[in-house]
Amino acid sequence: MAYEQILYAALDGVATVTLNRPDRLNAWTGVMHKEVKAAMRAAADDPAVRVIVLTGAGRGFCAGADMEVLQGVRAGASASGAEPPFDPAAGADFSKTYSYFPAVPKPIIAAVNGACAGLGLVISLYADMRFASDAAVFTTAFARRGLIAEHGASWLLPRLVGMAHAADLLYSARRVGAVEAKEMGLVNRVIPHLSFMDEVMAYAGMLAREVSPRSLREMKREVWNAQFQTLGQAIDAANADMAASFVSEDFKEGVAHYLEKRAPAFTGR
């Protein structure tokens, strides 16, 4: 597929999706919305891809919805409901306009290289992990635009940073630097800007090479679905998944490569 507003590349088990409107700090449009979803579908369907990195071109990750085309964003987003789910076993909540990242059956790392605001911040929250450049700046922005906690931010933020920090970020819409974001729990790591993508890709490559794609797929589903389960339900779901893992090819390889003291050759089966 030819893309207009993103870049897509897959190499050595890692797919990189780059928001590519650097002159607008990668502000989100209806076209970008459709292209990111298409790229996620391509990565999900490609057996050679094991990890997905989402980042931005230039100085920004995503400055939020493009104010000049905001109506087009809304119109473009409304059509996504007719598409098949990424993972039918994922919770129904992970099939909304922007909430489908948790249903993509491969880990998604948001590599936040710069400005991350509004809808751009929400998109990053749906990733499994967030790595931030030390040049990154975060803001919810909504309260300063007369808006609300959009697209599930009121559910996502408290789970990541706690109620008090979530209230602070949402109510004030103040700008938060990368170090403070890590202290809150908003991001996993802060990385020097000059080595940022090298370190992100090193981590993604480690996941692609050294761990079972089947384990990643099953664990991702378990972790996200568990947000709607009791402890007992999560245990029962894990017990049901365990039986299949014991007869999987990746389990056999996981034991074999450990005993034989060699690099793993996981297949995802």
Structure keywords:
single chain, about 270 residues, alpha/beta, about 15% strand, four-stranded mixed β-sheet, 2-enoyl-CoA Hydratase, Chain A, domain 1, six-stranded mixed β-sheet
Note down, in words, how this protein is organized.
This protein has 269 residues and is an alpha/beta fold. It folds into two domains: 6-207, 2-enoyl-CoA Hydratase, Chain A, domain 1; 229-259, no CATH class. Helix content is 42%, strand content 16%. The protein contains ten helices and ten strands. It has helices at residues 30-45, 70-77, 119-125, 153-161, 163-172, 178-184, 196-210, 213-225, 231-246, 249-259; strands spanning 6-11, 14-19, 51-56, 60-62, 108-112, 115-117, 129-133, 137-139, 176-177, 189-191. The strands form two sheets. A six-stranded mixed beta sheet has the order 1-2-3-5-7-10, sandwiched between helices. Strands 4-6-8-9 form a four-stranded mixed beta sheet. α1 (30-45) packs parallel to α2 (70-77), α4 crosses α5 (163-172) and α8 (213-225) packs antiparallel against α9 (231-246). The longest helix has 16 residues, at 30-45. The chain is globular and about 55 Å long.
